[in-house]
Amino acid sequence: MLSFLLKNTAYGFLVLAGVIAVVFFLFNLAPGDPVRNLVGENASEDVVKAMRRKLDMDLPVGQRFVLYLNDLSPLSINNPTNEESRIYFDEKKYSGVQLIKFTDNKALVLKAPYLKRSFLSDKSVSSILAEVLPGTFVLAVVSIVLAMILGLLMGIVAALNKDSFYDRLMLFISAIGMAGPSFFVAIIVAWIGAIIWREEIKLPLFLVVFSLLFLIIKPFIKKQLKDVRNKRIFNYSLIGVLVVWLIPVCAGAQVPFITSTVTLPGTGLNMTGSLYSVDVWKGEYLDLRNMILPVVTLMIRPLSVIVQLTRSSLLDVMQQDYIRTARAKGLSETKVVFKHALRNALNPVITAVSGWFASLLAGAIFVEFVFGWKGLGQQMFTAIENRDLPVVMGGVIVIAFFFVLINILVDIVYGWIDPRVRIG
Q: Which residue segment(s) compose the domain that 46 sits in?
């Protein structure tokens, strides 16, 4: 197990190193002069020169890359005495301790990775990302946990009732959820939850009762309607009932029960908001209501994927020989499904969940932008818009770190769930 972890950690380190190199050269070789954009077109040459010196922009790109790696590395070579040195150990920038002193001007230092400072605010990139990461982390965790719980339950129900009404309903819902882009779904959810349904919403009473009765009695009626002709008569009668209901509704007539409505209470949700809100009297306080609409938006697509993967994987596993053996031994269907079948059907689901979770941690830019949520996605969008390169580079590196970490954790979970992976 230890060698497995070390090998995966080494692979992850190589991936992270490749991402750092690509990100650095991509942004530092891009056209444009960030220093001139920062100080303005009318700044004097002395100001431009001083700013280039401060940001190391007066050095060749290769030397800048070496200095950037030295800042990122937990173990770095720094100068503890000369304040004019490019690698001076400034306690305002670094938080660490000196381990070994090689010479008067060089020492080995153990420190937290340093991601430079923002061009615009001159704040450290680490502090900027630390402010917005909790908001994105909470959204990602709540969304993926709810999507996993509901998706597994819906997928199991669909698999155990294959080709039934519930199976088709689950597949229909998941197909719609997968078809909607995140930015479009965010707009629809915000429109319905924070505008149309904010105060109250009125639904046709007849349609609500009719739908509930239909869901309750259809499974019992379906067993009785074995003849195709009887099934068609039943379906046509349902259509006829709906047409009879539509006639007075479209005509504007007031018929008791037929045109009556049932009023549902409003959501009272705001279209925009973050994890913390500010009140004149309360000050800053935790406002969990603002999470509801973004969480619903973010969980729709992973929920749809988990439903389909759980259903297809469970149907495949239920056909295996060891499932028939378990049933032949007299085990209950609950034990067969949850102890034997489901555990071996979870591998593709875990892969999907890990990918979606890493993507959500990367910052759902469109969703955070639509709902005004203070998170990593919105911060990255603002930094790209203002050409704040250190923040963009630091954000991408943090995202890559999350992807690598989650992939390592998923490999460990594979070995815990599936004995075949441990044997391999």
A: 2-111
The runs of H, that is alpha helices, within 225-291 are 228-251
Distance in angstroms (rounded) separating the CA atoms of residues 413 and 349: 12
Residues 11 and 405 sit within 8 Å (Cβ to Cβ): no
- Do residues 52 and 62 make contact, with C-beta atoms less than 8 angstroms apart? no
First to last CA, the chain: 12
Based on the domain organization, do 95 and 155 belong to the same domain?
no
Residue 77: strand pairing partners: 108
Sign of the CA dihedral with 13 first, then 19, 22, and 28 last: negative
- 8 Å CB contact between 125 and 391: yes
Whole-number pLDDT of residue 100 = 85
The dihedrals phi and psi of 302, each to the nearest 5 degrees, come to -60, -35
Look at the block and give the residue holding tokens 């997968």. 178
pTM: 0.78
Query: Do 339 and 254 reside in the same domain of the chain?
Result: no
Element (H, E) at 279: strand 276-279
In this predicted model, what pLDDT tens digit does every residue of 231-257 receive, in sequence order? 676 667 777 777 777 777 777 777 777
* Cβ-Cβ contacts under 8 Å for 314 (sequence gap 6 or more): 155, 156, 159, 337, 341, 342, 345
- The reported pLDDT for the residue numbered 422 is 54
State whether 220 and 347 are in the same domain: no
pLDDT digits (tens, 9 = 90+) for 52-65: 888 788 888 888 89
What are the pLDDT digits (tens) for 71-125? Answer: 888 888 888 888 788 888 877 777 778 888 888 788 888 888 888 888 888 888 8
Rounded Cα distance, 362 and 358, in Å:
6
